[in-house]
User: Fold these one by one.
Assistant:
Number 1:
Amino acid sequence: MPEEFARLNPKRKVPVLAVGDQVITEMPAILTAISALSPDRKLMGKDTSETVRAYEWLNYLSGTLHGQGYGGLWRPGRFVNNASVYPDVKEKARQTIKNCYTFIDGKLKEANTAYSVGDSFTGVDAFLLVFYLWGIRIKIDMDAGYPSYAALAHRLLERESVIVARKVHVRMT
Ligand SMILES: N[C@@H](CCC(=O)N[C@@H](CS)C(=O)NCC(=O)O)C(=O)O
């Protein structure tokens, strides 16, 4: 990672968002900042109750699925120094990822709403879509295993903004 980037984010992680003179890191904070740029869109929920649920989702996705699951699978060195046990760490991480997908699918099925937080699109849906696509990338059959999650993802994939974003996306790994 270039030193120029490390000066921007000393944590040496993406994503990073620059708004004016502010440099913002961490997904829940970045999505909050994006939402504030366009308040009418209510991208962090339409009321306090939905906003609370949005943060509940984002912290789970960020801390457990991303940090423990994908962190362990793609960066086992974050968890152990001894490279000979990387396979164990990766296997456990893959199980964590699948447990998270089962939990997400169950939560979406139980809620039975159009989106993850109520009846309108939020930043949580965007983050959920990333992990659906990552699941496919690591060869999990997302559509067969997690039908409610897959149904949401397929609706999201048809959104104009998602189509445009995927065209400009540069893969980091
Ligand atoms: N807690 C951070 C996690 C960010 C993160 O782990 N980013 C990964 C990419 S998916 C990264 O930059 N990894 C680079 C590395 O580990 O060298 C967030 O929510 O934004």
Note: The two ends are 12 Å apart (CA to CA).
Number 2:
Amino acid sequence: MTPSQHTHPALVDMANHPYLSGLFAPQRKDVDVTGLTVTGDLPADLVGSYLRNGPNPRFDPIGSYTFPIDGDAMVHQVDFDGSTVSYRNRFVRTPAVIAEEEVGRALWSGLFDPYFPDEDDLDGAENTGRDMPDIHVVKHGGRLLAMAEATRPYALDPADLSTIGIESCDGAMLGGSTAHPKIDPATGEMLLFNYAFEAPYLRWSVVGPDGKCTRRPTAIDGVDMPMMIHDMALTQRYVVIFVCPLKFDIIASFTTGSSPLEWLPELGTRIALVPRDGSPVKWVDADPFWVWHFANAYDTENGEVAVDYVRWNEPTHLGVETAPPIADITRTLLNPTTGRITHTKLSDSMVEFPRIDDRSLTRPHNAIASSGQLPGGHAGTDTLFFDDLTTGRQTYWDSGTVSVGEPIFMSGEAHGYWGTIGTDRVTMTSAFYVFPTDDPASGPLCSVNLPIRVPAGLHGAWMSGSPR
Ligand SMILES: [Fe+2]
């Protein structure tokens, strides 16, 4: 242990931290409220639950705080039964959160700080690591999972969002799993990847619709260094993994205090097409770029793979940027036989969180919704964008003073809807907005007042059917 590890870190200056103040300021209480006020027409066929995860430190952080990597997980749930709407939130109570609740303050510092809690503080939790499953929430195989790539998933009780505990999905997940596994709507399988800091650096796994692991973590040949990879895509034939040139250097980070990540554009972006039938991986080489999130992928009629995603010139948020960020929604066509690759820009709005109707995953989709910023707009995301791929037309809903999150497709019994949480920057109150899918730019059908300001966060999911 180095001397710095004995130095107790100071509290982070939350008021002046962009991801701990304002829209991002954490909430600290678990809340249950039914009979929320609805403005507009609540669709009677919309029955189910929207869930969303996000970083939300249980206590004021010490040392450093890096969004979105640091922060305990808080899951928010909005239930629709056709006539009323309810809200609930819960911390994911990992052993670290429980240990901190016992002493009433943060014990662990930022993930990248060279500091570990004093054993005297832990009182029985000495072997507890700090898991932060704060990125996404996924339901599959009878499990409801809070997930983040650098940590193990935690299973939650769907009845009340209470924490059940660490979950490996029958051994499909090792030390961690991508927070963005993909569920094939045709087979019910969940496919995922794990990355690691030592060889094998990248593996893929499959969980059957019954929750049993049907492919244990299997090495993907061709990766010879630890790479950060956030999301994946899936077709009926391939697991698609974009290995962008962002390399982990954890040892340098701990010994010199430098960034744990290196952007190495000279390596280019390499794309793995992993056949789901288990045959050898095919690699396609591309110029360097970065991807946080995919919308979807599918096999084309002429044997190519089409992938729609938000393409960035460089990673954002991670402290490795060398140029102003540029992003657009791109369709990349990959030929598994020849290695030919072509990129087509679908729209050039600065967006993120691209989502489709998840019932179309692995097959052609006709619309992408995303959140972003109009030119000259407010800081953060103030606009929902809707790309109609059948017409090539992009429309948008300018939400004015409301900052909006990731849009989710919600399937009602008769119709589909887009939905998201938004927070008004003037009143600092949050609402859930429901949009029609046939003309979403016309604005919300209704908004539901939420009982607390929901901190700006990350990914969500819609779960059809009786919510509770
Ligand atoms: Fe993500």
Note: The mean pLDDT is 92.
